[in-house]
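User: Thanks for the earlier help. One more: Leucine-rich repeat domain-containing protein. Can you show the sequence and predicted structure together?

Assistant: Of course, both are below.
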Amino acid sequence: MRKYLLIICLICLSSCIKNLTDEELIETYQESINNHKWKKALDCVKEGLIRKPTDTSLYFSQALCLKNINPIKNHQEVLTNINIYLNHYKTSSRGRLLKYINYYENDLFTESIEEVERIEKYYGISAITLLMKANAHFLNKDYKNAAFNYEEATMYPNSIEKFKAIYYYKIYSKYFAGNKEGASWDTAFLENYGLEEDMELMSLISKDQLNIDDYNKIPFYAESENFDKEIRLKINLSYDRLFKPIYTEKLFYEPRKTVKDLKNLDKNLELLNLSSSNISELPDNIKVFKKLKALDLSRNRIKDFDKLFNQLGELPSLEYLELDYSNLKEFPSSISKLQKLKGLSIEASNIRKLPPEIGTLKNLGYLSIRNNGKIKDLPKEIKYLKNLNCLDVSGSGIQRLREEVGLCYNLISIKSNASKVKTIPHTIGNLKNLRSLNLGFNRIETIPKSIGDINYLTNLDLGSNEIRELPKTIKNLQNLQMLSIEFNRFRKFPSEVLELKNLQTLWLHNNNIPHLPTDIGNLTKLTHLLIDHEVISDKNINQIKERNTNIYIVREDCRKYVGGIKRKK
């Protein structure tokens, strides 16, 4: 009898839903979702699909309901619905998250990791995606990769509870990966991170008594409410189109002051230009400017930079500091006092090296050390700058881009042109958010395949290097608009370039490329093409123009002002 009553109730419910207006149907669905009445919500979605079969967004709603009714039993049906939705909304963060959860809850950890990597392809690497991958790796018993991802996730700001859980799972991962010594060291350093000493865990590790079955309940699952916010690229400062902070221009036009002017200035001012003021030290009353956000101390004669950084550490609102042309030979560790700093420019200041403490500036979004010819390398602690957006080391003595740079996931611009760079790390492919990469005028011979993973890259300057060929993966850079490969060692046109459908500007001059394929004309968005001033024939040029009349082709010689050989062998 009870079975028949249930059937009658379901029929009545279905009939009621069919009689609802579209507006009432949406309200009923939303109310059902809020009250976790997933079967009723599913009936609303099914009715919606009958009325609007082409509304693809309803397939997401249907997948959501099915997952919450029974994630295991409905796994395949959830997957079918979410794939229909994602075919139309490929970059949907909520769709990708639901697909990840569907795999994760069904112990399909390899597939869930692949889904996170798709999320990173569209949105870049973030703390939450690292944590999602770490959890999946851990449950998949891939403890080495789990330890790496947990390690990376600890470098992002977190609540103390969340940080503690991530840190502990980093310890467990190292232990179960066979790195008992590393697990012991991390346990010993718990107090350094504000956590309590854990002698019990230390004892278990030393006695080799940790049991994997005790740690299979992974905390801090990805939540849909905050997910879209957590995966978004974080931009700490406002930049112009050349990736210079807006503060630079504001300070330039700000009337220059002297130390004598300070006592008469408004204590609430936000910008202060003290450049070229013959300053040897700042007076103690600088600390009264509690709302000061940007300060220019360039072209002065500061004697004690350790004292200076300690003074500036007392300015609670300071976000941007310029110390260009300051002859800062020895960089003191007291730079760590500037914890609120978001932008730091120390150009042409005779720097020999950056201190490890630069890695403590967790809010730093912009770092420029351009035109410091004596600096040979960046410190490995650069990897801790998880909010770094723009790195400028152009005109320096830098001989490589460290692998650790590839761990600064929020980078959008790297300028390392006119330096002495010989190698690009394979980790460059981790920088999913990178828009501009300038490596021109260096000593680079090969480009790593991983460069093809930088999906959002729009500008790539590789001119004036020692490159003979491009990796085939370069064709994956479908957002690339500007490519410069002039004055290298190319002897034939790199055919991969023909796949770059959004390319607008291409520089090829001063190479030993005797002929250009007419298919260049099929790049419909290409408007500017710079070719060799002597090698390419008029006939070849006309053939390209016949394909695309909008291309402005210029014979260029980039060596005419500097002299020397016109082409490399």
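User: Great, one quick takeaway?

Assistant: Residues 1-13 have pLDDT under 50 and may be disordered.
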